Amino acid sequence: MVTRPAIGLFFRAALLIALISSAFWISASIRDALDLEIMPHNEALMHKIIIVSLACYFILMSLPFLPGAEIGLTLLTVFGGAIAPAVYVATVLALALAFALGRLVPIATTARILRRLGQRRAADQLSRLDGVPNDQILDTVLSGTPARPLRGLIRFRYLVVMLLINTPGNIVVGGGGGIALVAGLSRCFHPIGFLTSVALAVLPVPLAAVLFSEP
């Protein structure tokens, strides 16, 4: 017999799949639109497409599991260094927004969501952080993590985030938006430290577009 929680989980999964599929369709549509060659008669249209593309890129990059990076790469491929600063700023702001949203979500709410998803162990571990001041959460997490490899990952968490953001196929673990959101939810990252890490992590590709684009 199918239980009510199972039905609810099915509908949530179906909604997530529909959302991801729609995002992929939007991303593909924007890539197709950017394939147009800029001509005097369509210059105004291309400017509007670029603005809409940057806006969609910002939104998709700030959300977990959505293909925003493809739009950014397409913009850099088509327009090169001319648009690289705008793509860079949009990327940093999108990941900063995802991080900020994660920080705003109460720990108790995150634990409740994990329980509904069947992740009771993770929810219980997170619940013990509820009420702990933000400046003491890192020490609490480290004291409750006996495994040395995990402790090492936590200590070098900023470097880990930088590597994850630049790992091809990171959409499997939530993409840039998902990584930033989880970082905010964890309360283990200082906002300035996280923003600095993100700014450095996403710099190489736009910088390369500026340096190697034709004058």
SSE diagram, text form:
Blueprint: H1 4-34, H2 43-61, H3 69-79, H4 84-104, H5 107-116, H6 120-127, H7 134-143, H8 148-155, H9 157-165, H10 175-186, H11 191-201, H12 204-212
Helix pairs in contact: 1-2, 1-3, 2-3, 2-4, 4-10, 4-11, 4-12, 5-6, 9-11
Describe this structure in words.
The radius of gyration is 20 Å and the shape is elongated. It is built from twelve helices and no strands. It folds into two domains: 4-81, no CATH class; 101-201, no CATH class. Helix 4 packs parallel to helix 10 (175-186). It has 215 residues and is mostly helical.
Concise description?
It contains 12 helices and no strands. With 215 residues, it is an all-alpha fold. Helix 1 (4-34) runs antiparallel to helix 2 (43-61), helix 2 (43-61) runs antiparallel to helix 3 and helix 2 runs parallel beside helix 4 (84-104).
What is the average of the pLDDT values? 77
- Alpha-carbon distance between the two ends: 67 Å
Give the helix/strand class: mainly alpha
Query: What is the alpha-carbon Rg in Å?
Result: 20 Å
Which spans of ≥5 residues are poorly predicted at pLDDT below 50?
none
Q: Biggest sheet, open or closed, and with what strands and sense?
A: none
**What's the total helix number?**
12
Number of strands: 0
User: What is the string of SSEs from the N terminus onward?
Assistant: HHHHHHHHHHHH
Oligomeric state as shown: single chain
Shape: elongated
Number of self-contained structural domains: 2
Beta strand %? under 5%
